[in-house]
Design brief:
With 592 residues, the chain is α+β, with helices and mostly antiparallel strands. It has 14 helices and 28 strands. Strands 1, 2, 3, 4, 5 and 6 form a six-stranded mixed sheet that branches. The chain has a five-stranded mixed sheet with strand order 11-10-19-14-15. The structure holds ligand MTE and molybdenum atom.
């Protein structure tokens, strides 16, 4: 087995021989040391990869903000136009005759963004990226077109998303909000045209030209709205404003957290090895994909959340090491596959609280060590634990980024234990010796620093604590107060260990008054409630607050054990920035 890994690793990383590659060896040496490994290039460590361009992250978030806002504006304008069109007019009579002209006009309109307008100046991607505030003006691109949409902003609710905005391509938004891609909208957009982009598609261009044989040459295509926190390995979350739109997160918008290049697995050659190492007996069995798919199919709704979700908020208190995740390193899906408890029981595995189940992935680091993690056997054997060897996500075969052909789904447990591209399961008396089990994904006191930390003293994170996040409005958004004096706030809440969300409380006055949100959740018994809850609240805004114009919304969730989120990050700060579950606080602006 190890030999097979090694051979694959050499191929994957383009190595001829493990022993003669000194630099990669050193890489691993630092890697197992823990904290320092964040400096690696394609390191196998935690969430510390550097972005390929520091601008990119900021721009990505900003661009999404503008794009999102822009589509809401288009929606409003379109509705207005439709209302006008509904009024009886003599033009209706001529409408049939005009139809052909409209077609022609539309054909032309659909070419504009692909056509260079010679009378206008040409801009580079960098030029566009710089136009990300009202002061510098807000630019977006569509195809070859560069558009200045700043004038859309003033006095339009949502327009002030500009403040967190940067220039970016709007193309991916058309793909999702296709109903907006109409003649009127295209015409409207073209009136904002200020120039031509020097290179089409450049802003979302992910092809940095990997040579064949590079470990990154076979990375899957990703949805343009998944904005990378790091590109190699690929780590990305969807726009926060879209996260609470759907109870089941669309597969292509589900956050991706990879530590290594994505392995390419041929389903016909796929093998899953199960090793049971007990003191008195050892057994070994290999399954192919068919074997797993023939077993009784079990489906569970489970949210998967990265241990570093919302790290970007914790790091504001004091820097932490790790990828700067927003609140989008979580998604909710229906997972189907064989139950691990069935597989283990068929192998004669008996309950034993001292044992662990180790999962290994097919993604290998340069020294042929696979990504790995473990969970207690008690979780794996518990039929109410709902651990599955999943081959489907929301009724679709798993995509490569999410673990094709099989991944472990460990409901209620931190993302890191949900091992993708599963190739080996070991039942044994110790936890996984992998970096990610031993020297990462553990919590510490706020006073523990990199000089004093001892990873061996802390428990590996398993069940996650209760958390919630506000998805809309987004930070700095301008929100319109409705006639009844309320605003609508939406978000998600989740707790680990199968604990159902009991309540989500919202305040707009720093806790003087609290308002209970309405929950959308599955009707499942507590202890086995693994999906997230979406929530909606109508939050009353006082006359005084409306005068102030600025305000901060806080959200906190309570789970079925009456665990509640801590108020502030100060007291839960930890050097890896994990378990970042303080109240979610979002500053917005009010408009009448
Ligand atoms: N084989 C393998 N499994 C893995 C990882 C990985 O890098 N390799 N990342 C883990 C982490 S840290 C998280 S948060 C989840 C992310 O799952 P997703 O990419 O499907 O959202 O996968 C986990 N399983
Ligand atoms: Mo993670």
């Amino acid at each position: 087995m190890r030999l097979r890994f090694l051979a694959t690793a050499s191929r994957q990383w383009g190595l001829n021989n493990r022993a003669n590659n000194g630099s990669l060896h050193r890489l691993l040496a630092t890697s197992s040391a823990g904290p320092k490994d964040d400096q690696h290039n394609y390191n196998s460590s935690g969430e510390g990869q550097q972005q390929s361009s520091p601008l990119y992250g900021a721009v990505a978030i900003g661009g999404i903000g503008v794009g999102y806002w822009f589509f809401h504006q288009l929606d409003r304008m379109k509705r207005k136009q439709t209302e006008k069109q509904l009024a009886p007019s003599p033009a209706t009579v001529a409408a049939a005759a005009a139809d052909d002209d409209d077609d022609e006009e539309e054909k032309k309109a659909r070419l504009w963004h692909r056509t260079k307008r010679e009378e206008l100046p040409t801009y580079s991607v960098e030029d566009v990226l710089r136009h990300n505030t009202p002061e510098s003006r807000i630019w977006i691109t569509y195809g070859l077109g560069v558009y200045d949409v700043t004038e859309f902003a003033p006095n339009h609710p949502g327009g002030d998303k500009i403040l967190m905005a940067a220039g970016n391509a709007i193309d991916p938004f058309w793909a999702i909000y296709q109903q907006h891609n109409t003649l009127q909208v295209l015409q409207l957009l073209e009136t904002f045209r200020i120039g031509n982009l020097n290179k089409i598609g450049a802003i979302n261009d992910d092809d940095v030209g990997d040579e064949l044989g590079s470990p990154w040459a076979q990375e899957p295509k990703r949805h343009a709205l998944l904005k990378p926190a790091s590109k190699r390995p690929f780590n990305a979350e969807p726009p926060i404003g879209m996260l609470a739109d759907k109870f089941y997160t669309p597969n292509e918008l589900f956050y991706v957290r990879n530590h290594l290049p994505v392995p390419s697995i041929n389903p016909d050659e796929y093998e899953l090895e199960l090793v049971v190492e007990l003191s008195n007996a050892q057994s070994n069995r290999t399954f192919n994909l068919d074997d797993i798919q023939k077993m009784p199919k079990h489906t569970v709704t489970a949210a998967i959340m990265c241990g570093g979700n919302r790290r970007s908020e914790m790091t504001r208190i004091k820097p932490v090491k790790g990828l700067s995740w927003g609140p989008g390193a979580v998604g909710n899906a229906k997972w189907s596959g064989a139950r691990l408890c069935d597989v283990l029981q068929a192998q004669g595995v008996q309950p034993d609280e001292r044992l662990h189940v180790i999962f290994e992935g097919a993604d290998l680091d340069p020294t042929a060590h696979p990504y790995g993690a473990s969970i207690p056997l008690s979780k794996a054997l518990d039929p109410r634990g709902d651990v599955v060897l999943a081959y489907e996500m929301n009724d679709q075969p798993l995509s490569r980024d999410h673990g094709y052909p099989i991944r472990a789904i460990v409901p209620g447990t931190v993302g890191a234990r949900n091992v993708k591209w599963l190739t080996r399961i070991v039942v044994t008396d110790s936890e996984s010796d992998s970096h990610w089990q031993q020297n990462d994904y553990k919590g510490f006191s706020p006073s523990t620093d990199w000089d004093t930390v001892d990873f061996s003293l802390a428990q590996a994170i398993q069940a996650m604590p209760v958390t919630s996040a506000i998805c809309t409005p987004m930070p700095e958004e301008r929100v319109k107060v409705d006639k009844d004096g309320c605003i609508t706030v939406r978000g998600y809440a989740w707790s680990g260990g199968g604990r159902r969300i009991e309540r989500v409380d919202l305040t707009s006055d720093a806790g003087k008054t609290w308002h209970v949100a309405q929950l959308e959740q599955e009707n499942l018994p507590d202890g086995r409630h693994y999906g997230w809850s979406l929530w909606t609240a109508r939050l009353p805004i006082s006359a005084d607050q409306q005068k102030e114009q600025h305000m901060e919304i806080w959200a906190k969730a309570v789970d079925s054990s009456y665990n509640v989120q801590p108020e502030a990050f100060e007291n839960i700060w930890n050097l890896r920035g994990v378990l970042a579950n303080a109240y979610h606080k979002v500053k917005v602006k009010l408009s009448q």
